[in-house]
Amino acid sequence: MSKRLILEVLWGPGQGRKAVVPAGGAVTIGSGAAAGWRLEFDGSLAPVHLEVRWDGATAQVRSLARAETCLGGQVITEGFGGHGGWIRAGATDLALAIERHTPPEEPPSEATRAAADPVLAALRGEPGRVYAVLDAARCERIGVLLRESPAPYRSLYDGHQGDALAEVAPYLVELGPFPELLESLVLEGWDQPWGIWLTAPPDRDTEAVRRHLRKFLMVELAREKVYFRFYDPRVLASFVPTCAPAERRELLADLAWHAIDFRARRLVTFRA
C-alpha cells in the first residue's frame, strides 16, 4: 500500500497542524473557505494559494495565485518535491513528509515487545482521550516519529519561545486516533524517559489539556523560577507522592497521569 504524504505547518500559531494526502489525491491550500485545507491564521495567503498532488512517490506543487509560492527556497509556478522538502506560501512554512518513512535504527526486540504489551493494552483500554507529553530534547527520534505521523501535535511553549526551543520542547499529541504512533512511541522509547501519558475525559480537547499543562512549566524555588520537567516519568513518579492533597488535585485535575516504571516494567497511574 502506498504511503500518504503529510503536510505540516512548521512555525507560528498553526504549528503542528497537518493535512494528509493519500496516493492519487490532492489538496488545495489557502486562507479562504474554498481551500481544501484552510490556514485562516495567515492573512498573507491567497484564498486558494496552491495545490499539492501526491502520486505515492513525488509531490507536485502548483501555484494557484499571483502571490509567490516557494519550493525548497525557489519561487515556482510548478515543481516537484518529496520527503524532507518544504514549501513557503504567504508567511507559512510547510514541511513535506512521507508517512512512517524512517525505520528505527534497531527494531524493538521480542523481549521489549513482551514487556511493553501490558503497557500498550493498559493505555488502549483507558477510557477517554489518550495523550502523550514527549520531551523532544531526549532523542531526535521523537521528532521523526511525530513528523512522519498524521497526528497533529503542539509544543507546550508559545510564541517566540516555542519557535526558538522547537527542537527541545515538550510536545502534546493525542494518540487515540493514531494507534500506530502510540505503539511506536512505547516500543521504541522503552527504557528511555521520552515522556508521560495522559488520559482526559472525552469532552476535554487537546487545547484544553495543553492550557492546563502550561500552568506547570515553571515553578518557583528559593525565589527563582525554574523549568519543571513534570513530563519526565522519573520526575512525575517521585513528585506526585510528595504532594499535599490540594497540590495533587491542582496538578492532576480530571486527568489520569501515567508513567512507565522501567525497573518494575509496568505502568504507574496517578489520579487526583
Helix % is 10-25%
Assign the structural class, choosing from mainly alpha, mainly beta, alpha/beta, alpha+beta, or little secondary structure: alpha+beta
- Strand composition percent: 25-35%
Tally the helices: 7
**Straight-line N-to-C gap:** 44 Å
Low-confidence blocks of residues: none
Q: How can the largest sheet be summarized?
A: 6 strands, antiparallel
**How many strands appear in the DSSP assignment?**
19
Strand order of the largest sheet: 2-1-11-10-7-8
How many distinct folded domains? 2
Overall 3D form? globular
One letter per element, helices H and strands E, the order comes to EEEEEEEEEEEHEHEHEHEHEEHHEE
Mean pLDDT: 94
Rg from Cα: 20 Å
Description:
By secondary structure, this protein is of the alpha+beta class. It has two domains: 5-98, Tumour Suppressor Smad4; 110-270, no CATH class. Helix content is 24%, strand content 32%. It has seven helices and 19 strands. The strands form four sheets. A six-stranded antiparallel sheet has the order 2-1-11-10-7-8, with no helix packed on it. The chain has a six-stranded antiparallel sheet with strand order 13-14-12-15-18-19, with helices on both faces. A hairpin with an 8-residue loop joins strand 1 (5-9) and strand 2. Helix 1 (110-125) packs across helix 4 (179-188). The chain is globular, with a radius of gyration of 20 Å. The N and C termini lie far apart (44 Å). The model has no long low-confidence stretch (mean pLDDT 94).
